Amino acid sequence: MIHSLMIPRRKKRNQEGQSLVEISISFVFFFFFLLGLLDLGRVYFIMVALEDSAGEAASFMSINPDCRSATECPDPNNGEWRARNAAGDQFNWTNATIVVSYPTTGKSTGNHVRVSIQYPFTPLTPIISAISGGQLTLVGDATQIILVE
User: Fold this and answer.
1) What is the rounded distance in angstroms from the CA atom of residue 16 to the CA atom of residue 18?
2) What does the buried/exposed string (b/e) look like for 29-46 if buried means 16 or more CB atoms within 10 Å of the residue's CB?
3) Distance of alpha carbon 122 from alpha carbon 91, whole angstroms
4) Which of 1, 63, 97, 121 has the most CB atoms in a 10 Å sphere around its CB?
5) Contact call for residues 95 and 50 (beta carbons, < 8 A)
6) For residue 49, what is the DSSP state?
C-alpha cells in the first residue's frame, strides 16, 4: 500500500499538450477583449472631444452669429476654427464635418444656433469592424441661444 503511493502516476499520452492548447485559446479571447476595451476608450475620448468642440463653437457663435467660417470672419474669430482647436490635435480633424444651423427665422436674438460635428471612427477590433461595416459615425452636438444681433 505504501509502495503504490510513492510512485508518481504518468499522464496519459493524449493529455500532454492540453494545457498549452487551452492557454493559447484563452489568449486569443483575452486579446480580442483588450482590443474591444481599447476601442471603447477611443470612442469615449473622441465623443468627449466632439462634445467639447461643438460646445465651444456654439458658445462663440451665440455671441458672433455671423462668424460661421473663415470666409465670413478671419481665424481665430469664427466658429469652425473654434471647434477645430477646442480639443487640440488629438485626432484627425480633416475627416470631421462641422455643420452649423440656424432656425428658419434667422440669426436674431433669442433664436438657437446648433453646431453638429460628425467624425468617422474606424474600430481596431475586427469583430466590431465587421459588425459595423468598417466605420462608425460619431456625432457631437451643442445648441446655444443667440445673445446679440
Assistant:
1) 6
2) eeeeeebeeebeebeeeb
3) 12
4) 121
5) no
6) H
Burial class (CB in 10 A: 0-12, 13-18, 19+), 49: buried
pTM of this prediction exceeds 0.70: yes
Using the structure block, give the residue that is written with the C-alpha cell 436674431.
108
How many angstroms separate the CA atoms of 111 and 103, rounded?
7
Neighbouring C-beta atoms of residue 62, cutoff 10 Å: 21
Q: Are 60 and 127 in contact (CB under 8 A)?
A: no
**pLDDT tens digits for range 9-19:** 666 666 667 88
For the range 105-111, what are the long-range contacts, defined as Cβ-Cβ under 8 Å and sequence gap of 24 or more? 107/65, 107/66, 107/146, 107/149, 108/146, 108/149, 109/146, 109/147, 109/148, 109/149, 110/145, 110/146, 111/145, 111/146
Domain ranges of the chain: 22-145
